[in-house]
Fold:
Amino acid sequence: MNFTGAHILSIEQFDRDDTEKLFRTADRMEPYAQRRRVTRVLEGAILGNMFFEPSTRTRISFGSAFNLLGGEVRESVGAESSSLVKGESLRDTARVLSGYSDLICMRHPQAGSVAEFASASRVPVINGGDGSNEHPSQALLDLYTIEKELQARGRPIDGLRIAMIGDLRYGRTVHSLITLLALYRNLKVVLVSPPELKMPEKYVEALRTAGHQVLVTENLEESISSVDIVYSTRIQEERFQDRSQADLYRGRFRLNQAIYTRHCEPNTVIMHPLPRDSRAEANELDADLDSNPNLAIFRQTDNGLIVRMALFALILDVDQLVDQYSGDVRWFNPRARVL
Amino acid sequence: MNFTGAHILSIEQFDRDDTEKLFRTADRMEPYAQRRRVTRVLEGAILGNMFFEPSTRTRISFGSAFNLLGGEVRESVGAESSSLVKGESLRDTARVLSGYSDLICMRHPQAGSVAEFASASRVPVINGGDGSNEHPSQALLDLYTIEKELQARGRPIDGLRIAMIGDLRYGRTVHSLITLLALYRNLKVVLVSPPELKMPEKYVEALRTAGHQVLVTENLEESISSVDIVYSTRIQEERFQDRSQADLYRGRFRLNQAIYTRHCEPNTVIMHPLPRDSRAEANELDADLDSNPNLAIFRQTDNGLIVRMALFALILDVDQLVDQYSGDVRWFNPRARVL
Amino acid sequence: MNFTGAHILSIEQFDRDDTEKLFRTADRMEPYAQRRRVTRVLEGAILGNMFFEPSTRTRISFGSAFNLLGGEVRESVGAESSSLVKGESLRDTARVLSGYSDLICMRHPQAGSVAEFASASRVPVINGGDGSNEHPSQALLDLYTIEKELQARGRPIDGLRIAMIGDLRYGRTVHSLITLLALYRNLKVVLVSPPELKMPEKYVEALRTAGHQVLVTENLEESISSVDIVYSTRIQEERFQDRSQADLYRGRFRLNQAIYTRHCEPNTVIMHPLPRDSRAEANELDADLDSNPNLAIFRQTDNGLIVRMALFALILDVDQLVDQYSGDVRWFNPRARVL
Structure:
């Protein structure tokens, strides 16, 4: 893919060379994300951060990533989309809004809406989530995290053993991640869910066709016992018509330190597409895992910032200029205290 | 008018010299709006973008225009105006908020509210729409568009023939535009609406008093047949107490490519104060006009950015400094791809 | 206190040396707040302005203060906090959001929430109000205003005579202010409220223990007759379970120019933690006081900007660099017109 000026709408656009290029660019963004350096390369550029459905963390992650490159952010959040209510087409909205910025990140509750918007936009558009359809930067930050966690353990993605747990039927995140993982070699993928929430067959088929080993099971303990990564997902209540049905599955695929110690190999990585439900009756990942250094869930969100910076830098073709416009951080860097 | 430090509350403040000065400044903003150049002239300045009523596009247009000059934007949107609920006067609100920025753009649902706010503000205030009353930057961008479209056809505004169509009674936009047009010479203005929604008599009188020719009609086809510009407006349902009445007028003043080809002179310009209703039963301007190069509706919104930049530059007295603090665009300019 | 990297959660963190250090830093921020100079010292830094409960003026004051130091602002407002709804803990939210910025200002409806958030945050957190608990920057700007107003009259805070009027039971503002005032010497504090809304005993005791004179009364006229400062507060209706009870107290502790002239010493300062209720039936401070030069209520909000700049500069350890990265203001400064 030629990143310059490209719309990023779907994970299907990426081949292995593309993820490689993105991740090596991401590596170079890390000093800026951690405030060891500042760059002003996008000074004067404007991001239109158009969230027609609210999402605090994704919205702020995109906005901060653009700020970290020196650019400005104009935003729209949720309920305000009055013009759409007045019957304006997404294409008209795109023609108007794309005149106000250099790049647009967009979230919208309707599947396919961002692609439709992009088709009329005069600037590149990044899909920040279009309903049940796609949220490519989430899948990319997950894959980048997998790569970094494995790297720290001296291993590549090829040959990875991963267990995916929870709601695999409605989880947009795991579908996209599997599509990306299929680009690699010799994976072992264990899919753990109640039968009603199991992974759609097309994803399983795609993995098998690409030569990967796939196990489908309902048994949590067994499935996490010989993998490198446990990827846990929440049961999204709002996907159920009947909310009481959701309660049936609550806690059934719960992971805590005791289970981890008993069943997992040492240094098994734990991931999760936040938010995590921390209410007593509903833990997917118990709080007692928080002191486990293999819990990578907050490294995931930190990597999200880095991957989004890399996307911006590549799309706007400044990835080779970032260092040239950089300087020292003048202010107290709290990260120095913690890391 | 002395623009420096002025409140822009009403179109009535403008004479022909003022629009001339504004538009020549706007011309000089175009390279920055199209990202052929960047300027940092307002680096360190703050715009207070206070929208006590939501309006995504106007709000973002103002904010982006300020960013394009190098300034920062602080915003408020809609329902949040809790202090007003607690009984605070607009004058108190103005005293407080005007301490936080160098200039304020304000939208508020109540007619006259922005003028009241401005009377207590310590910084210049631009009216971004106060209910049914005024929205001066919209009228100015419309007039600027008319000038540019005519210019491309080798003609000045003097002598213009224009048809205004749709809801001319409640349409704040057409009222303001007519007030500005009256400053010019020898116009022919055709007013097309159902009798219940016709242009208030005072605007018709003002045009005639200023020596312009005015035709009032209900016949769309006839009215668009010998004009330079067709200015179509939407029937704003929310103006009607009885919504079913609005349905009566839907589609009755609809324009599409077939009607355009049959009735309009070649190169007749089509304008519209967006949003346009694109639902099947309600088109004011059909989507089949989108490939007609004379459809100027998106050039209007692009001009809005430019006119707002010019207002900021003149009010803050930096119009002569914009180029001095300018530089090259370092990133991919998507406009180069399309234009 | 060592300001560098500190969380500012409670007024209890401050001793007299701390307020002194903060206020002398604030003095040096004034030229920037009044746009006589600009500084870019925080260029590249990001403030996370997280308002989980709406508050236009506090939010924009924090945001503008950060912009005035050259930094960027990412924001969240109110209802959008969807992740919290999904059962995410405040500690998880903090871990995620603190990766996106260099410093966080946070408002949240629940007492203690900001401290809990701060305990997991990787960057410094300023409490912008956590329910009925604390709002330290408001108390600090009040104290700074008292110091400046007295200074203009040639007097220090030691020996101050102050009357506090209105709802002293539920008013977070007066509680915090009293805690700060107790750090000084030989104060006379007059507490004026209906018995049902009187100051909690612990604050009265703290003042007396620190050697100050405290008078508790229901008589407005008498209480304001020999003080330097009258600090009036609104009766916050939302604190009452029974709204009709609120009406009983409305207007009973009202101050207007006639009462001021009849009872107050010349140059008695009038303060109020805005917003002020300006409805006819409910004035706490009548509008006829607006031309009284001793009405300091808008100087309070202006001081808020300055005190918040000082907090940012100290926490991020750039207070000694602010002038080094400064320059002239290029644009029209409206403050020059009014002041």
